[in-house]
Amino acid sequence: MTSASCPRCGTESRRVHAWHLRRLADLPVGGRPVVMGLRVRRLLCTDVQCPQRTFREQIPALASRYARRTLRLAATIEQVAVALAGRAGAALLATLGVSVSGRVCCAR
Asked: What is the 3-state secondary structure (H, E, C) of the chain?
């Protein structure tokens, strides 16, 4: 089992407090949406001076902190938003199997 670093103090920890299911939307397959369930650990910070008692492990190669989409899906949406923006971008993404609103394609 690998360790993870506390985001506040940087102390490495392997002490598992609990498990958490994280749901991430990914690129569609065959025009059908894909949502992956990712089981991540909630760990205890072993530094007694640290004010953060527990923290969730992060997988930066897959998704950023608090994200609901994978980095691949977010990059695809961003590229379509830059090229088309608004309703046209949302319509193109809908034909690809990605459901977003026109506001998502406008936001940067």
From this structure: CCCEECCCCCCEECCEEEEEEEEEEEEEECCEEEEEEEEEEEEECCCCCCCCCEEECCCCCCCCCCCCECHHHHHHHHHHHHHCCHHHHHHHHHHHCCCCCHHHHHCC
